[in-house]
Fold histidine kinase.
Amino acid sequence: MGRGKLRIYLGAAPGVGKTYAMLSEAHRRSERGTDCVVAFVEHHGRSRTETLLHGLEQVPRRELEHRGALFTELDLDAVLARAPRVALVDELAHTNVPGSRNAKRWQDVEELLAAGIDVISTVNIQHLESLGDVVESITGVRQQETVPDEVVRRADQIELVDMSPQALRRRMAHGNIYQPDKVDAALSNYFRPGNLTALRELALLWVADRVDEYLQQYRSEHRVSRIWGSRERIVVGLTGGPEGRTLIRRAARLAEKGAGGEVLAVYIARSDGLTSASPKELAVQRTLVEDLGGTFHHVLGDDIPAALLDFARGSNATQIVLGSSRRKTWQYVFGPGVGATVARESGPDLDVHIVTHEEVAKGRGLPVATGARLGRSRIAWGWLTGLGGPVVLTLLLNTVHLGLANDVLFYLALTVAAALLGGLYPALASAAVGSLLLNWFFTPPVNRITIADPRNILALAIFVGVALSVASVVDVAARRTHQAARLRAESEILSFLAGDVLRGETSLETLLERVRETFGMESAALLERECDVAPWTCAGRAGTGPPVERPEDADVDMPVGDHMALALTGRVLPAEDRRVLAAFAAQAAVVLDRRRLREEADRARTLAEGNRIRTALLAAVSHDLRTPLAGIKAAVTSLRSDDVAWSEEDQAELLEGIEEGADRLDHLVGNLLDMSRLQTGTVTPLIREIDVDEVVPMALGGVPEGSVELDVPETLPMVAVDAGLLERAMANLIENAVKYSPAGRTVLVAASALADRVEVRVVDRGPGVPDDAKERIFEPFQRHGDAPRGAGVGLGLAVARGFAEAMAGTLNAEDTPGGGLTMVLTLRAAGTPAGASPVTTAERQAAR
């Protein structure tokens, strides 16, 4: 059983009539004979809503006790056991009582849909996850119950239930929404005209964006030329701080403003240990961005602004969203910050949004890039202290005589400062320069590089030893900090990578693109070969660099087993990066194996489908060939019999039966042969320019006279088709329409010109076909409804569509206004390029 369909009634505020509209739709479906039940609907004491519940079957609710109180919830198991065609589930964003199977009601709905049950539900615009901050700023109320936008966007139908703020307030005042004792408070707070107007605007804009997405999807499926610009791709720079959630929601709203917008959240891990991101907060933000339909990326980079801009340009992003700096005012002396740097270097192709948040100036956010283990600025200050400090100290001590012991301590303190700032080498330089200056200026005999008193020699030796020890400790600590920070960054990247691969959400190309992004390379490719002497082949590639034919030609190559390697171009990686690269390479091999297993499974399904078709063919032929053959055999045997003297009328009737049986056999065998040619790809149309009015009348030979009405103007442009294939396709369409038309109702065959296309419509007034079956009727061996087996093997429409596509045309089914089915055959006009997309109903309406 396939997945059920979800229909959502969306409102701007409580009381606009979502539940009422849902129940009215349930009554309409029940009157048409649809098995429809109420899984959970809350009428909230509204009499008109409660009245609509009468006449609908209600599944008993499940009772749960929580904190001494009894609550009723949707009984998911009871609904699944009842297995209705349609289930009504109110309040999609509702949070279930603890003890329920799922935490949220939308998760219950997902299980019903997975079981093949259609669901009709309701939700208010303020419950959408991405709009939480906006709704709170409008109403002053933070919505605790939310539903991920992706759940609502996946709905098959979204219907806006709209009502003006004035009408809604009148309903409130009349007591049609809340109890009388709550009306005044509601009108004065949440239901103020300004609040309702703003919420209504949000709902209208959100639904308008969904309409654009539906139209884009329809135009894409029907190969209609695009008329809108490219989609927005928005990069969100995350620091791991709590402001990231605000940035992600803001970016999601920006993406929804454009057609097909996409959000890419990126966290850039530093290798110098200066960024302290919370893994727990990053996991929460990753879940949030994925719930909102975006993607999360983890990238290594010491220069944060450069890495962020490289990622944005490599992703073809159009906008960057960053948070206002969390640094305090005095911290700006170290640099302008990431936001200002990115805005300055973004250029004209990237828009940068700086978003305010509650964490502004409460603590440093994205740090300024520095570079080495201790940072370039710290090393520079260390060398300045180690070389210039002793000279300045000597000038000072020459003016104030404190004694040799105190002089040694001052020089030692200066050496320790140089070690703390710059590490080992500045400290060594400070010790060397300081010992020389001590010897020359302060150790008797002065102004000579000699020491007269052995105790002074011991003091200088201790001075140099202490300096070297402190410098060594600082250098080791810096190295360990660097290693710990790098290992932490590697572990975070590997954990995210393993999660993506284990969930099966990452394709090989996506994984290679992640490798390229992480290491800042031009291209990444996975190469393989069958044996040691076989040539290398590329199994997957990402990036814009030149292709690599052998691992030896790449800047970096990482072997994966004996006959596979990951090759990167762009720069040479340090040895410490190869550990992470080895993990990426192993995961790439796993993804490649999974893809091949999936391809083998697809081939197995294809073979199973072929076996199903052959089984259906044998079942159909066993009856549909035998029936006309039996009729012909009986008629011929009767005519050859000498025991009965047949009258001329009887003989004519028997001969007519033989002729009809032969025609049926001819038609059946012709369709079987045509379907075989289509499936094996041996249909080669002979395209030439012909008039439609010359071919269509020739397709009427298999239907009763007077059953078809033609409206094919002679002024139509010529079409580029194969005359034989067009005649066979039209014959199948007309015979199918006549078969299902009521007695006394003719089938209309009309043709018209549309831009560079000619459209032929076969219109019948039969029972019609539901929307969910309009594509299925074009599959081989499909009969719709209760058509008898003698009505054919179900190949006519499949053959007609196959022939239409072979001639660069299309064949689709539409509803006939007033009842019935219309087959629309769109053909390429003469002189039109073969690759031109067909003109469809959506394009005609858009042109108007």
Remarks:
- The chain has a mean pLDDT of 78.
- The CA atoms of residues 662 and 722 lie 26 Å apart.
- The longest strand covers residues 262-269.
